[in-house]
Hints:
By secondary structure, the protein is mainly α. The chain is built from 11 helices and no strands.
Amino acid sequence: QDLNYIESFINEIEFNVTNDSLNIRNLVLSINKMIFEESKNERLKFYGLKGIFKLVDDENDVIKDNVKAYLQKNVFEILVDDVDEDMLKMLIKLTNEDETTVGKFTEIVNKKDLVKMFKNINHELVYEIIVQNQGNDIVGLNNNISFINNLLQHHTNIINKQDLVIFLPLLNLNNSDLKLRLNIFKIVAANLDMIKTDVKIKNEVKS
C-alpha cells in the first residue's frame, strides 16, 4: 500500500516534467535525483532514473546540461569500464520502454566511451542470453535481445567477433515468438560485413 502511494506521487511528479515553470521542472529534477539515489526499492529507483532521462531534452540549457552531467557521472561512467548489473537492468528496461532513449546517449557520452561501454555490455549480455536460452527464459531473452537490437539501430561496431560467433546459433532458435526471432535476425543482419570477412564466423554460419 505504501509503495502504491509513493508510485502515485511519482506519477504526479512525471506529469510536471513538461510544466512551463522552470522552477517546477528544477524541483522535479531534484526529487527524481533523490528517489534514484536514496531508494532501495528497484521499482522506485527506476522511476527516478526514468524521470531524470525525460529532462534530457528540456528546453532550458541549464537543466539540460545539469541532467547530462548527472547521467554521465551516475549512470554511464559506472558502465564504461565495468558492468554494474543493477544499473544495466534499469538501462535495459528504460530503452525497451522507449526506444528513442538510445539516440540520446550520444548527447551524454563521447563516442569512444560509448562504443567501449556497448561492447562491454553486449559481451556480458551474450553469455546471459545463452543461459536464458538454455533455461527457456523467454522474457529475459526478449528483454536482452531487444536491447541489443535497439543499440544496433543507432550504433555500429559494438559487438565483438567472439560474441557474434556465440550469438549465431540463436538463428536456429525454435521459438514461436516472432518478435524475438525478428530481433535476432536484425542483430545478425546488422553485422553482415563482419560475418562476410571473418573466416571463423563464416564457418560457424555454415555449420
